[in-house]
Write a structure and sequence with these properties.
Layout (H helix, E strand, L loop, with lengths): L8 H30 L1 H19 L5 H4 L18
Amino acid sequence: MKKSLVANRKGQFVIEAVLLMIVMLGIFMASMSQLRESKFLAKMITGPWDKVAGMMESGVWLSAKDARQKHPNQKDRSISLNPNE
């Protein structure tokens, strides 16, 4: 009767699982440090926020600085008190 070269398959599974966890943890840590350095999340939030702030402040889909000039209260009004004029 021949003996199997790998007699304990459970031990091999555990070692492979540990190695896979170490590799995945390394990939996760590298990707998280890369995302932190590139400030990906900060850019994703602050980029659109400029236009959203303009819409909240002035009702125009522009940056807050440009939207202030387009607010309806900034327009010159040419209304007479007498509507028949």
